[in-house]
Structure formats: C-alpha cells, structure tokens
Amino acid sequence: MRERLEKRLKSVLKKKVKLTLGVLISFLTTGNIGYAKIINEENISSTLIIEENQEIENSGIISGNANVTEADIVFNGSGVIITSTSNLENLIDITNSGIISGNASIVGTNISVNGNGVIITSTSNLENLIDITNSGIISGNASITENASITGNTSIIGTNISGNGNGVVATGNLENLIDITNSGIISGNANVTEDASITGNASIIGTNISGNGNGVVITSNLESLINITNSGIISGNASIIGTDINSNGNGVIITINLESLTNTGVISGGIIYPLLEEGNSIHILDMSGNGIVREYISNNIVNNGIIKGSTSAIAAQSISGAVINNGILAGREIFSNSYEIHMFETTNSILQEINLNTITPTTEINNGIYVKLESETSERNDGNATGNVKVDSSGNPIIEEIEIGTGGKVTLEDGSEKTIINGSTTGEKTISETILNKESDDKMDIYLSSSNLDTTSNVIINGTGIEKGALVVDSETTLTDSIVNGYNTGIYLEQGKFTVINTTINGGGLKNDVAVLKGDENGNIVEILGTSVINGKVELGAGEDSLTIGNSVQINGDLDGGIGEDTLKLGDKELAKTESNLNIYHNINDFENIVFEGDTTLYETSSITGTTNIEIKSGTQVNLRVDSSVQDSDGTYKTHALFNFTSDQLIIKGDKDKITEEDFNEDNNFVVEENESEEGYDKVSILNLVTNGLGREAIIDLGNVKIEDTVWVKTDSIINQATKNETEDGTTITIEAEKDLFSINKEFAEEKYYLELNEIYKGIHSSNDDNFNVLNSIITGTLTDANKGDYTTITDKQQMATLLAYLKQIYTETPYSFSAEASRKSMNVFGDIVKENNFKAKDGEIITYGGLTHNNGEGTDKYYGKNYHGFDIGSADTKVDSKMTGAYGQIEKGISDSTAVGLMLGGNNNKVDIATSDLKGNSAYLGGYVKHDKGAFRGIAGIGIQYSDWDSHRNTMSDSYKENYSDRGLNIYAEGKYTKELTEGLFLEPKVGVSYDYIKQESINESKDKALALEVDGKDFDTLSGNVGLDLRKEIVTEKGKHNLTVGVNYTRILSGADEDNLTGNFGGNSFDILVPQKTKDNVSVGIKYDIELETGVMLGAKVSYDVPFKVSQDNHTHKNEGSWKVGVGIGYRFNTLNDLNPMNIISSSKKDSNITLRTKSYFEFDKAELNNNSKKVIEKFSEKINRDNLKGKIKIEGYTDNVGKSNYNEKLSLERATKVAEELKKQVKNSDTEYEILGKGATNPIGDNETEVGRAKNRRVEIEFQEK
Questions:
Q1: What Rg value do the Cα atoms of the chain yield, rounded?
Q2: Which of 256, 369, 576, 1150 is most exposed by smallest CB count within 10 Å?
Q3: Mean pLDDT within 876-882
Q4: Which pLDDT tens digit goes with each residue over 128-153?
Q5: What is the C-alpha to C-alpha distance for residues 167 and 1, in angstroms, rounded to an integer?
Q6: 315 - beta bridge partners?
C-alpha cells in the first residue's frame, strides 16, 4: 500500500503542468538558505506554485480550478504546490486563516487528476517544514456529478481514472516536518454521488478507478514528523460508482516516522460504496475508510477528541506505541491491520469481506469510549448503505458495541488537567462498562445530563449523542476549558442558558454531516466565547433562539437558527480591540436578526439566508469579501455572503448611539463623509467591501437589500471608493478606482516629488485590471504579520504609507536607472589607466602592460516628503553599493622620439546593490590613444568604445522581476601634464584634462506574465567632465632599475550631465518618469602610486586612491557620495630596449702585459651636456674600480654627438660633455697623480645609425678609457 501510494503520488506530481496564472503574488528568494514571504488576502484563482523557500500567509482564497474535456489527461487543480529539486533548509510557515483549495472538473479517458489543497514534494532534502497552521479551510476535491453548483467543484467522468482529492500531501526527502496544527478544516474528498450538497466533496463515475479522498497524506523519507495537533476537523471521504476500484478515504495517512499525534477535534475517514441492483457484480480493491493509517505505529497517539472511520479508527500492521484515548475511537474495528479490503459479490448481491483483522496495541489506555459499528452484510440495493457500515432507515450507523473506559483525571500534553466523564444510556456518569446492541433498533444512545455534572470546568465529556447529544443541557450551564465529544451530536439544548468558554465541541456522525450542537423547540440561549472551536454544524431548531459567538471562536460548520424569530450576535467590540476579527467561512441560515457587535469578516464561501435585519454596532466593521472570479451574465458580482435573492428585503442599519446632531446635514441626513477620519471610526457602523481584485470599476449586486444611511459603506483600499446605488430592484455598490493621489488625499502639496509619484500611480490606474488589483493587494495585505486578514487594524495611514513606499520604489529604486552611470565609470577606469601610466615607449620600442583593478563605492540618495499626518515618512533614503572588478591589457608602440600610440583592451564585472534590488553586469572596452612629449610637457588623448550586458533583479512589494538588457558607450578624453624638477630626482607635475562620455541604453520589457511588469524606453546619456590635478613624484635610480613613488590629488567636475534625469516607463498605460539620480558633480580623490622599471625591461606598478565624500542637493533630493576606494596592480615589459645604454652595463676591462684597461660610456639627452643620474652612476662605478685597486695611469675622455646640427656646434658640444665628465671624475678618483686627456670629436666615429632615434641616442656619448702605467 505504502509503495503503491508513493509511486502514484510521485508519478502524478512529476507529470504536473503549470496553469496559467491570473495573479501570482510572491517574494522569491535566492540561494538555498534564504526565504521570502507570500502574504495573500485576495482571491488567487489559480495554482500558487512555489519553487524555493517561502513563507505563505493566507487569509484570502488560494485555489486551483479548471475544466478540461480531453483524452489522456494529467491535470492538477491544486491550491498550493511546493516543489524543489535542491536542498531547502527551511520552509518556514504555511499559515492559513482563509481558504486553500484545489478542485478539478474532467470529462475524458485515461485521466489522472489532482484536486489537492497543499502539495509539498521534494526530490532532494527539505530539512525543515516548520509549520502548517490552519484555522481556515484547506481542501482538495476531485469532482462532482449530477450537481456541480458548488463553486470550484465539478466532475470526473470516464475510464482509467485516477482522482486525488487530498487536503495536504507531503512527499519527498523531507527530514523534519515539524508541525501540522489545525483548528479549522483540512479535508480531502474524492467524491459524493448524486448529491453534492456537502461542501467540497465530489464524485467519480467510471471504470478502472483509483480515487483518493484523504485529509492529510504524508509519504516521504521523513526522519521525524514531530507533531500533528488537531483541534478542528481532518477528514477524507471517497464515493465511487464503477468497477475495479482502488480508493482511499482516510483522515490521516502517514508512511513515515511519527513523533506524536494529538487530537482534540475530529479525524475521520469514510467510504461510500456504490449501490448495486440485484444480479450486478463488482470487484473492489484496496479500499480504506480509516481515521488514521500508519504502517507501523511506534510512537504515542493521544486522542482527546474523535478519531473515526467507516473501517477502523486506527489502521496499522502493528502498534507498539501507546494509544491513549480520552475521547472517542469509532469504526467497525477500533484497531485493525486493514490497509486493503478485498470484497466480491457472491449471490443475491451480498458483499463479503476478508483481511479485516483486529489488532491490539502494546499499550492501550481507554479513558473515553470505543464505538464499534456494525458491518454491512445485507443486500445493498436499499439505497442506505454507507461505506462498510450498516445503517438504519434514517441513515444513522448501527452501533454494535460500546466500550466505556475508566474516565478520571488525566494530564494533557499542554499541562492542563482534565476530568474525563463518560455518559450512559440514562444520562448519568459511568465507568468501565461494555454495552452490546442486542436489538437492531437499539440506538445505543450514550449521553450525560448537565444537571449530573459535579464540575463544568476542565472536563472531557464523551457520548454517542445519537438521539440528542453527548451532553444534554437541561439546566443553565457554563462550560469552560473543556472538550465535548459526541459520535453524532456533541451538545443538545433542552432548557436553560448555555455558555461555553475555551471549549471544543466535536461530533458529525459517520460522514461529518450531523450537527454537533442542536437545540429543541423551546427557544435556546447560547453563548460561544473565548477560543472555543465548534467542529461542525449548529442547528438550534424551532423557537426564538439567541446565539452569541465571540471574536476568537473557530466555527467549522454552518449556523442554522431554525424556525422562529432567531437572533445571532457576532463578535465583541472590546475583545476585537485586542484579538483578531471573527472569520465566517460557512453559511448562516434562518437567523432573522443578526447583530455585529465586533469586527467580522464574511468570506465569499459563506452565504446569509433567511435574515431580514442586520445591525452593525458603532465602532464595528463588517468586512464583506467579494469573489472576483465569478461574474454574473449581467456584468455584476453576486458571489458574497449578503446577496439576497428572496422577496423578503434585508435591511442593514447602523448604530446611532454615538452620533450627535452635528453629524446630520440640513436635510436631517447623516453625513458619513464627515466621520471618515480614523479618529471617528468608533462613531460609525462600517460595511467594508473587500474587493479581492475586482479591478478599477465593478458593480457589486446585493439584491433585495437596503442599506440605511447610518452605515458607512467603504472599501478595504484607499485607492477604491464605494458608491451606493438604490433602486426598486435592490441595491448595488459601484467600486471606482481613485484616479490620482490628490483625490485620495487632498492635503498633498503639488510639489515635484508628489507629482512624480502621482504620475506613476496614474500609470498603474490607466493600465490593466491585474496591475491595479495587485496594487490593491500591496497596500491592503502586506503591512505586518499581525495584520494579515484583519481588515480593521490596517489603517488608512498605513495604507497611504505603503502606497507611497511602493511608488517611491518605482521612482527612485528601479535598477535600470543606475546601470548607465556604472557603465560610464567603467569606461573612465580604462582612460584613467592610460593617463596615469608613467611608462612611455620610445622610438622603435614596444611596451606591453596589463593589470587588475577594483573599485568599491557607496552612495545615498535622500528624498524629502512632507510627513503628512505620519503616513509620509518625511524623508526616504535609497542606498547604492557598487563594486567593480576588472582586468586590462595595453600595447604601446613608439613611433618617434616624442610620440607613442597604443591600444587598450579591458573588461569589468559590475555589481550594484540598490536598496532591495540589484544589478550585475559585464563590460568589454576597446580603445586607442596617443602620447606626445614636448620638452617637459606630455599630452595624452584617447577614444574608446564599450559594450555592457546587464542582468537586473528588481524586487518590489508585489513581485520580483529579472531582466537582461545592454548598453553601449563611447568616451573621448585628453590630458596635459607638465613636469618640473624641484631638486635632484623630485618632480612636481600639474595636470589638466577633459572627458566626454556617451551611453546609449536599450529599452527594457519585463516579463509579461507578471502583474506590474515595467516597460522602459531606451535612453541616451551625455556627460562632459573636466579635471585638474597635482602630483609629486620621487624618482630613484638603483642598480636594478628606476623607481617612481607618486602622491597626488585630483579634482573632477562634471560640467554637463550631472543633474538628475529620468527614464520613461509604463505598465501598459500612461507613461511616467523613473528617476535617474543626480551624479556627484564634484569629486576630489587622493592617491599614492608606485612603479618600477627593472634593468631587464620588466615594469611593475600599484596604486591606491580614495574619493572623498561629497554631498549635492537639488530640489527635494540630496545625493551623497559616501566615499570610494580604488586599487590596481599592473605588470609590463619594454621590448627593443637599448641594453648598451643601460648604466648597469657600464664597465668593460682587459689585461695585457699586466696592464689594466677600463672602458665605459656615458650618454646624454639631445642637445644636453648636463650629467644625469645615470651618467653620475657610471662615473661613480668607474672611479670605484680605480680607487679599490689604487691604480695609477691616464684617463682618456672623448665626447661625441649625433649628426644633427652643424659640425662646429657639435664639436663644441662634444667637448663640453667630455669636460663635464672629467670634472666629475676628478671629484671621484682619489689618486691625484692621475692624468686626464679631454677631447671633443663632434659627430665623428658614430656607433649607431644616425637615421634612427635609437642610433642617434647611442652616438650622444662620452667614452672613458683608463690605461694603467
């Protein structure tokens, strides 16, 4: 069974197809350990598919519905699907106080259908599914036949059918499913035949049928399922018509480890067999109708409520853990090993069964009641057969045996002490008794009269409640902190006021269709208060009844007043101030008067019929949810609780208790508009329309309803206004969208900031309904966790604050506004490298150079509002953190003595974080440049082009949008630098430059399958900048090479293009501006740079600079550069260097006849005779050799020039050079007897080619020769 179920579920899940999403509101996460949140208060009428770690909070409706007519169908109509193929560490929460449902309608063959509420599946490890908390309804429904009038449920008709209608399905490698906590209804229903009146149930008709109708199915490699805690209803039902049937109708199926299961509510599983006419045959396989199914139970099961099944209460192969029953366990067997029931027809339409064997838990403690039902073995054509259970003519199950436990005091898991009181056939307490049904018409009615109670606090009362109830109230009774369990009915009212506080009432019968609280015909007064849970229908019967329900009560069934003038009071205003509002999911019938005394939400799944007067007390808000997925043929919306189609008019009136004469106009009409401020809410009675995505204009039809003027009719959203229209035919309410911000709040100043936000709002308003609906959802449903589903405490101020924050996100935080500036800075990096590189190729030389760079900077844009009444925050910051890492390579060729040209190739990786969004981009740059020296002046000019590819991730309050786009750039730059030698080796270098940058950004169209997706037009950006700077450079020449250490300061001013700009965007409607923030107009940077050129031609460099913070203001906008760091390293090589000009190769020596000869050369700049540092080093090294060996002899010094110039000038210059060398030698050589011969030889004896720069440089020399004597 387990393997088959796992295989079936996995195969269906693997084949699932995504439905087209109408509205998908989600915050997606990145990575395996983060999570985001989905908060829904609207009506999502399609499957919500989650692929990452999420937190889901639903107080609205999430449903998956569809109609399909086709063959070979695989279909999912599931409410929420959570699936992962990666390691999810935490799926934090599914919190449901609304409705999650999955429904499907199919006609065809070879059909596989899933109509599940929540599916959780993982093909990898899902470590922790922390919580599924349900106080609403989670349901999965496969189909309906005959009657498909219940919204969202239809039918399956065909052959080879696999239909799943499960409430919660979890399958995959789940390590820990921490908690399933249910105080509402979790139901999975495969089918109901003929009559689909039970909400959320359906039917399957055909052959070769596999139908699952389980409440909770958990089949997985779970290491531990920590807790299932149920105080509501978990049910699974299956109804089949056909042959060769494989079906499940269980409350809870668990095929993995179970830590604990605690039930104070109802867990049930049932099967409805097909009706057979005489002579027909049927073969039914694998049918289950159990409360709990677990292959091997080794952990504790504690039942304080009701666990029941048409087959058995608990089914397992063995039960080695403790089963502690403080409530009711019911089934044909209490404990059985029945995973499968094989049944066949013999003769005369008699069904027999096999493989239903009783088992006994290792530890079994029965403090409550076991109810053993009689098996069906009679003819099945009487129309009353229900599952495997024999029923009487009224459809009630026939009880075969009742085993009454010991009762007494017990301590529950929460630490509370309860006294277990079991009823009897006489209404008195009893213990340890077994009652057998000896007569077929014996009702086996076990009950307790309230007058026989010794205490009415902290008790668990158990009975069958067949004719009346498990507890028969025959005197005024107040029951607190207790549990009442009736197999059929929990409470029956005979006389006296009855009050329950913090009490759970369970019942429902075999199919959960019996009222859990009933009244007689004498008129009943009932108060249900505190955190009480009513698990089923309430039927008060005839008489003038009064029912009061408090704010924190959980009602899991219909409320029926019966015949008579009945009054229903809902909520308590004082409690509503501290507790959430009351939620009504089910129908209210035949209460002629309803008084709303506390905030209440009427869900679209509920309806109010038989009511003629509704009063809303002052300070009370009734939230009416309207189903936007169902539009009538006349274009109006009627699917809501207050639609009155009868001829008896329903009057809705307000409370005038707190209204004064000042609240009426001259015509004596109450003026609601004057009381719309939140401070005046306590005065008025409010009907708040929760529009659930009706769009910008919709008409809600109330039918034969009159709303008095003392009721303020409003919407849940500040961007919608409600207009009441009354005619003879009834009342309609027109919902119209506010067209601009200034109509929403008339106090807004018409200043630029608000004008721009207003244009964005108008852009949404003028687009499609989906966009406007999502905006509605943002401002009404995504404030704080505490406000989810509470339409009362979310104030207009909070909505306005959220609206402005969202519009500001669009205006100031859209990532597309920041990429152009990042691209501009990327281009400037490569231009700066060219300008700052001290190395230059000489004539005939080639230099290659490459390196790495990294820039890191932050900025803040502050936008000032007016702080209107607290909803406008006054000022808002947008922080931008940018990082840029790149690499480059350049090659430079000397084309003359003074001029070099080069190419630059580079790339940058950019990352820009903007508030909640981010940009990631890659840029490729190609440029050319020229360097020219003229004396002490160096000029540099260059041009480059760049292509940048950007991946944006725009996160908003509504969704996350990922987009790819590009831009192209051009930059042109020039800089001049003058070098002044202050002292030997110390240079001052002032510089001035200019730069022009152009960026062309392409248009952007975000994904069309998401609401509020942006379209952004392309844009051109131009920037002209100028800069001045001053460097101080120290040059040091050593034996290994030449070193330069430079410190400097640079000031850059953007001459044009710094002011704030805008992109043009739209949501499919009117266009609006998206702010491109102003740039830092003035920038001061300080830096230090070190470079070295080794004698081998290798060049190395490194630089660090810091941009000093600057702040600029414009209108209501201040931009501050928080400061940024830039670092870079580089390495290069100089080819074709003149090695013989290198001062390190300065001395050659020879020895002949014991005499030593030393020779060297000293080189000079063009038209110069001054000794440079290199020449002085040559002379110093030459002198050291003479001095070290104390040599005596003659030094011959010959000066030379190149061939440029006249010969007599060159002879004079060459002699001057030789003389300068001689003077330096005389300082260095210690032996005063040394002789000197000084000659000037002009351009004679060239050693290089005077036609080239390199050759001429070789000829500008002084040759020195020492000859020992």
A1: 45
A2: 1150
A3: 75
A4: 343 555 555 565 544 433 222 222 23
A5: 19
A6: 293, 336
